[in-house]
Specification:
Distance between the termini: 46 Å
Radius of gyration: 23 Å
CATH class of the largest domain: Alpha Beta
Shape: elongated
CATH architecture of the largest domain: 2-Layer Sandwich
Structural class: alpha+beta
Largest sheet: 4 strands, antiparallel
Order of helices and strands: HEHEEHHE
Oligomer: single chain
Length: 128
């Protein structure tokens, strides 16, 4: 009869461990957040030389990745945005907020605001 208790306890413990592992894996599989910016540049040379490298450095420092950027936008349906477009991917909205609120990014934006107008938004990715 003791064997029966040991087996039952082992099954219950295994089930509990499995449940914790599955929960942990689901937490790790959090979908990414995409940050999309439309950038109406008024001085392309200054924007590319003075702002873009600094801004891209802050993106990388705070954990974002630049997926696409530029003016080559092809309309599939409707009118494409006329300015430059940038697409970034982030692990979470919290990381984006930390980046946007950082002193480094605020200093970079002082430069960027001299050469462009920005419109940005995020969209949560789908679980993969």
């Amino acid at each position: 009869m003791k064997t029966q208790y040991v087996v039952t306890l082992a099954v219950v413990a295994g089930f509990g461990l499995g449940a914790v592992t599955v929960q942990s894996l689901h937490a790790q599989a959090k979908p990414p957040v995409y940050y999309i910016a439309e950038i109406d540049v008024t001085n392309v040379d200054a924007y590319v030389k003075e702002y873009a490298p600094v801004a891209q450095g802050t993106i990388k420092k705070f954990g974002g990745r630049l997926l696409a950027a530029g003016q080559k936008v092809t309309a599939i349906e409707g009118q494409p945005p006329k300015p430059r477009v940038a697409v970034q991917v982030w692990d979470s909205m919290e990381r984006i907020k930390a980046w946007r609120n950082s002193a480094e990014y605020k200093e970079a934006r002082k430069i960027g605001d001299k050469y462009a107008k920005f419109r940005a938004f995020t969209v949560e990715g789908l679980p993969q």
